[in-house]
Write a structure and sequence with these properties.
heterodimer, A: about 525 residues, alpha/beta, eight-stranded mixed sheet, six-stranded mixed sheet, about 35% helix, disordered N terminus, B: about 625 residues, 17 helices
């Protein structure tokens, strides 16, 4: 029996035996822990075996690993140096999304795997932006992350203003308040739009609004994740660096041979690209005005004025046709949520646009990680424009420099889990013609049926985009692979997801796929 | 001749004596006594109008002179709500999920005093005011258009929801078949004249009600103006609604007189002269010394202040004319629309000054200094009359121009051409130079028609159709000023569709695709020489789907429309018969290679820039007034 087969069998077995207990508590039982230990040994063997006849023979040794966690990003870049392999962690998050299907329940095991792989020593941790689908791992696996060390933590420039509650920019505080208020209005509504908006807010705060009615008393959700990132890994901020486009980043010494260019987010003097640099003004103002002083919903008149339609309103009109008040209520109700949803979307877009966009170069290979950057962020570095354009004729000319970057990259981390708003068409076009099969790989960490609606063409990932990208390069989607977890057994590929491409340098682990350059 | 020969013998033949028998006499006398034939003199004649109280501006102006007004609404029987035939107020609060007690305006105790007195705390006054202002606005549109207006297809009674939502917004919503007014808490920091944190009702702002009603009226006249095909389309909707609201200000005599007194007749001034002067060493001490903002040229004062901006939402003359500003692609629809509003008001004040110049000269000749702010009572009256008559004319010009606009894809340049054509059509002579004032004002702000050859009145007018070059529309029924009966509509509809199909190519459509006729309505106007002018205004529209990117069909399509507005004059009678109905104007948005291609490209770019590529819900191409950035 080859070691590979053993590993699978063990995983399947343990999956079956721990399924029941896993449902009761997410923490592995003692028995399960044992299996993890055994399994990890097996896993290492698998990777090694594939590695010898795969990547390692001729490559640079540079590897990008994508853990399959569902709807979220969790990437590990391994940089080979004279002093051995050094590690860069880029995001660690997952989010359940609108449908609740986003979190496939593998992130804790993935973090365990990360610990085994890196021995808890990370050269660099990058948080692209503060959405739960990029940082939830830090709070879900809090205890384990407390054992990790990092030499440096990178965050987007805009993040530095977010913590100080006395400053005008205490964004996390504002977002939480804002989200709580919005959520108050959305809760109990059953329509699709409200659910999506609520999900966006949960993503922004990491708070499960349906589970907790009270406010966040102690650190939880994203606030906890940020605490781990800034105070534990970032040594109370001493190791944290905030970067914006154009900054020359300082890399940890041990990452010898690696260089990095920061392409996004737009810096402060280009804040027009952020569309909503002042949330309070854009969204908060709207909210301020909608609730009474004590935070409850505003009531314009006293109780005595309220009445039912049957009591006081005419039942037939002047032409003796019946007036249907049920329809009236429906009409008014349907006209309501759009603005609230708009407010929620603004928060979402704003945070996505904060994404740190990093281009790594190592031994002639370029790797582009874009987080969830959306229009404003892309526009700033992609086009020759000094302001966001609502006239796309002007978007015609991509900067030579940016075009050069896009044409020569060897790896692209697909933005925002494959949503259309995060990879502009012009960028797809610039990404090279006919380089497919020429070592140009894109990775997209996603999970279908979590967000959007294919009938409206807003599904994530967006099928036409996936097809277009698949035509330009070898597209590796996390949801195309089955993974084996201890807690939840085998997780099958997403429904309707096309078969993954067969690549020589691609290694599949139990919880991830890894590409060697 | 044969007629006369056959007629003349008849009286002679019936030469027998005309005697009325007694029996016949008796029945005739009895018939004269039958009640109901003539209006019974003891009955009370039905009222023509119903007086209703309302705020002339909004509650924040308090008892400022003229802030409370009485609107004479055309009388109709009303059910509690009030629910009428054309509009119905239904006070359902979507945020608190409850109904509020409706006002019964037919209650004798309300009838006797012209409705409830203005009050912020009584929802029934809110309902009354919304009903009154909406009805009043509709009446003005009907007067200017020369016909009854209809709402968008599918809405036969517009529902008004005075407290529909908690939001600093109000919106016309076709899908909710009505207008939703929001309420919100005023800013805590800088609420202007409001109390910090007080509840502000958008349904108590006269301007906001008129603005939203205008959206509904315009949407009823031109269905496709709510499709965002170029940046001017949503902006036009906003500008037009603002114009209607602003021009209403000048019909309000009391406020007008007060403003004239405080601006020395120069109505366009932003600040009013304080009632009491301020000396150089002694600053402002009492309220009478504070310079108030001119309420006539500002929109939605209370709303703007409550949002913490400290000023009216928008102003008619906001900034200096700048031909470059319109080129800025970042302008949102309201800002873009504000440019057109200021152009129209520039023209308005120019004409007002021109028409009152002699009055001022006479006044000064009588010993008044040139710089004085003092205006005597009788001069103020004359000025007010000029101001309101000119405002009425301008409002009519703008409204009538709608009938001369293309049915799809409107631009500001198209509107200017429509204004010039419509006005010249009715008033060939332009004594006061109104059209010239319009042209200059638009030019100063860089709003130029894309397809006119010269910037002269002649070139700006839509070209007339060469008689006989298009076949006559035979059999078209013009009806009368009451509109068309169902039967008449059923004749015209198929007739026009057949006409459009047959002449598709010459009308500027693709010959092999169906052409729709979304609307046709007769317009009756009295020209200055006293003749009644009757035109049929017909919209013809064709839709076809165009790919976002011809090389990438998977990205989906967007709808392109070709359209033309056809004006058919009611023919004169020749030899006891109507001649064929000739087309006078054909105002087109064509699809042919040159023009259509450019339009396609513009629309593609605009659609992409609006992020409409994402998704495939066909509704996304329509303006959502609720989302238009705080609507209003």
């Amino acid at each position: 029996m080859s070691p590979r087969k053993t590993a699978k069998k063990v995983a399947r077995k343990s999956g079956a035996s721990t399924k029941k207990s896993a449902k009761k508590s997410s923490k592995p039982t003692a028995a399960a822990k044992k299996t993890i230990a055994r399994k990890t040994v097996a896993r290492k063997t698998v990777a090694k075996r594939l590695g010898t006849d795969g990547a390692a023979e001729s490559g640079t040794g540079l590897r990008v690993r994508m853990y399959r966690v569902g709807f979220g990003d969790f990437f590990l870049v391994t940089v080979p140096t004279a002093a051995g392999d050094k590690f860069i962690l880029i995001d660690c998050g997952v989010f359940k999304g609108k449908t609740g299907k986003g979190d496939i329940g593998s992130i804790n095991e993935a973090v365990e795997d990360l610990f085994k792989t890196t021995n808890g020593e990370l050269a660099l941790v990058i948080m692209t932006h503060r959405h739960a689908d990029h940082i939830a791992g830090f709070n879900k696996a809090e205890d384990l992350f407390r054992k990790f060390t990092a030499s440096q933590v990178w965050m987007p420039y805009w993040e530095q203003f977010n913590d100080d509650k006395d400053s005008a920019h205490s964004l996390q505080f504002e977002i939480e308040q804002l989200a709580m208020e919005l959520a108050l209005r959305f809760r109990g509504r059953e329509d699709d739009e409200s659910k999506e908006a609520l999900a966006m807010l949960e993503d922004a705060t990491g708070i499960d609004f349906n589970a907790t009615s009270a406010g966040p008393k102690k650190l939880s959700g994203n606030a906890l994740a940020l605490d781990i990132l800034k105070n534990h890994l970032g040594a109370k901020g001493k190791k944290v660096r905030y970067y914006a486009a154009g900054d020359e980043p300082e890399l940890p010494e041990e990452l010898d041979g690696l260089s990095a260019v920061i392409l996004g987010p737009p810096p402060k003097d280009a804040q027009v690209f952020m569309k909503l640099e002042d949330l309070k003004k854009g969204v908060g103002q709207y909210l301020d005005s909608t609730s009474a002083e004590d935070g409850s919903a505003l009531r314009p008149f006293r109780e005595q004025w309220t009445i039912t339609a049957d009591e006081a309103y005419p039942q037939v009109d002047l032409r003796d046709r019946p007036i249907n008040y049920h329809d009236v209520i429906q009409h008014v109700a349907r006209a309501q949520p759009s603005m609230l949803a708009d407010a929620a979307k603004k928060v979402d877009d704003f945070l996505n646009n904060q994404s740190l966009v990093v281009l790594f170069k190592f031994a002639g290979k370029s790797l582009l990680f874009v987080g969830d950057a959306q229009a404003g962020n892309w526009e700033h570095w992609l086009y020759e424009a000094d302001a966001p354009s609502s006239d796309p004729t002007k978007l015609g000319s991509i900067k030579d420099e940016s075009q050069q970057i896009l044409r020569t990259i060897d790896f692209y981390k697909v933005g925002h889990h494959g949503s259309t708003n995060a990879t502009p068409i012009q960028a797809v076009e610039a990404l090279s013609a006919g380089r497919k099969g020429d070592g140009f790989v894109a990775m997209c960490s996603t999970q279908p049926d979590v967000y959007g609606n294919p009938l409206k063409g807003t599904e994530v990932p967006r099928d036409p985009l996936m097809e277009a990208l698949g035509g330009e390069c070898d597209l590796v989607r996390s949801d195309a692979y089955a993974i084996n977890t201890v807690a939840n057994g085998t997780i099958e590929p997403g429904e309707g997801v096309p078969k993954p491409p067969k690549l020589r340098n691609l290694v599949k682990g139990d919880l991830y796929v890894e590409y060697s350059f | 001749m044969p007629d006369q020969t056959s007629r003349s013998p008849r009286p002679r033949k019936a030469a027998k004596k005309r005697i009325v028998s007694n029996a016949v006499r008796a029945t005739a006398i009895a018939a004269a006594g039958v009640p109901g034939l003539f209006l019974d003199s003891t009955a009370i004649p039905p009222p023509a109008t119903r007086p209703l109280k309302a705020y002339a501006f909004d509650p924040s102006l308090g008892h400022f002179i003229g802030n409370e007004m009485t609107i004479e609404v055309k009388y109709e029987k009303l059910l509690p709500g009030p629910v009428g035939r054309k509009v119905a107020v239904i006070d359902y609060d979507g945020a608190n999920k409850c109904f509020y007690k409706p006002v019964d305006l037919d209650d004798p105790s309300l009838l006797i005093r012209g409705g409830l007195a203005p009050s912020e705390s009584d929802p029934r006054f809110h309902q009354q005011m919304v009903y009154a202002v909406v009805s009043d606005t509709v009446q003005h549109f009907e007067a200017a258009l020369g016909r009854r207006i209809r709402w968008r297809r599918g809405i036969d009674r517009l529902n008004l929801y005075p407290h529909a939502m908690i939001s600093a917004n109000a919106a016309y919503s076709p899908s909710a078949q009505g207008i939703l007014f929001g309420y919100f808490r005023a800013s805590d920091q800088d609420p202007g004249r409001n109390l910090p944190g007080q509840t502000v009702f958008t349904c108590l702002s006269h301007d906001i009600i008129v603005h939203e009603t205008t959206h509904a009226v315009l949407d009823g006249i031109r269905t496709h103006f709510s499709e965002r095909t170029n940046p001017d389309v949503p902006a036009f909707h906003e500008a037009f609604a603002d114009l209607a609201a602003l021009f209403r200000h000048f019909s309000h005599k009391t406020a007008l007189l007060d403003t004239i007194a405080k601006t020395g007749g120069l109505l366009y001034r932003y600040h009013l002269q304080p009632e009491s002067g301020v000396s150089s060493e002694d600053g402002v001490k009492i309220q009478a010394q504070l310079a108030q903002v001119n309420p006539l040229i500002g929109l939605a004062q209370q709303f703007g202040e409550a949002r913490g901006t400290g000023k009216a939402l928008r102003s008619a003359l906001s900034e200096e004319p700048d031909p470059k500003k319109i080129l800025d692609p970042k302008l949102e629809p309201h800002q873009r629309g504000a440019i057109m509003v200021s152009a129209v008001f520039d023209a308005y004040f120019t004409i007002y000054l021109r028409r009152t110049a002699d009055l001022f000269r006479l006044y000064r000749a009588n010993g008044a200094g040139t710089n004085t702010m003092e205006v005597s009572g009788s001069l103020a009256n004359l000025l007010a009359e000029q101001a309101s008559r000119t405002a009425e004319i301008f409002f009519q010009i703008c409204v009538r121009a709608i009938d001369y606009c293309p049915p799809v894809d409107i631009t500001f340049g198209d509107f200017l051409r429509a204004v010039i054509t419509a006005d010249r059509d009715l008033h060939p002579e332009d004594k006061d130079g109104i059209r010239d004032a319009f042209m200059q004002a638009f030019r100063l702000r860089g709003m130029l028609p894309a397809d006119a050859e010269f910037f002269s009145e002649d070139a700006l007018c839509w070209p007339r159709i060469q008689p006989k070059s298009l076949p006559a529309v035979d059999g078209l029924v013009f009806g009368d000023p009451n509109g068309l009966t169902r039967e008449e509509k059923d004749i015209n509809g198929p007739l026009l569709r057949a006409y459009a199909k047959k002449n598709a190519g010459r009308l500027g459509f693709w010959p092999d695709l169906p052409v729709e006729v979304p609307s046709f309505h007769p317009a009756f106007r009295i020209s200055p020489d006293g003749r009644l002018r009757v035109d049929m205004v017909i919209e013809m529209v064709q839709q076809y789907d165009t790919p976002f990117d011809p090389n990438r069909p998977e990205l989906g399509t967007f709808p392109m429309r070709a359209g033309c507005t056809v004006l058919v004059a009611k023919p004169s009678i020749v030899d006891d018969e109507y001649a064929g109905a000739e087309i006078r104007y054909l105002i087109q948005k064509k699809v042919d290679a040159d023009y259509g291609g450019t339009r396609e490209q513009t629309q593609r770019q605009y659609t992409l820039s609006q992020g409409l590529l994402e998704g495939n819900d066909p509704k996304r191409f329509s303006i959502d007034f609720n989302m238009l950035h705080g609507g209003i």
